Amino acid sequence: MTPEFWLERWQRGETGWHQSEINRHLREFWPQLGLPSGLQVLVPLCGKTLDLLWLAGQGQRVLGVEISQIAVEEFFAEAGLDPVVTSAGALRRYQSDELTLLCGDVFALAPGHLREVGAIYDRGALVALPPALRRRYVEHLETQVPATVPRLLITFDYDQQQMVGPPFAVPDDEVERLFADRYRITRLASFDVIDDSPEFRRRGLIAIAEQIWRLDAKA
Q: Could you tell me if 170 and 157 are in contact, meaning their C-beta atoms sit under 8 angstroms apart?
């Protein structure tokens, strides 16, 4: 997927991935990480998700990254917030108290942007990227954030021949290939969500699993 693909989707209002409520898996599984309040949480490819507000409500400092200026500005407008906008290298920083969104390409992130990150919540980034970009994305973040940063990762697994992503299928063995060198990987849950996802049925799927992973840095 090129940046233009996502920008055009936002411009046309074709944002079927956006949820009008907080992700239920975030509510259920985030507390299991046992993270202290005040920690900065990175949410890559965040769109205008309400998950950002929920994390901030748990006492976390939130750093979202989103390529679409439309998404960023709609997030703050819909939340009733008036952010301060400044330059951040190749990106633009929108900040309101504990909420910060960097507008620009995730691959333009530099160490200075992420030096305070203490955890990563990835619900929509890895599954938004085709296979050729996933390894690059993982390696890019690993060069930018401290080695001890834990992650809560949400993926989908389905027969990729039945539907063309996004969201893309990220099978178990790929999660292992991408993260096992650096992380202890725990699958917290797997849910059959085809009955809750009529759009996926319309696109040709007969089964789809939503998987929740906890990634803890190896000693």
A: yes
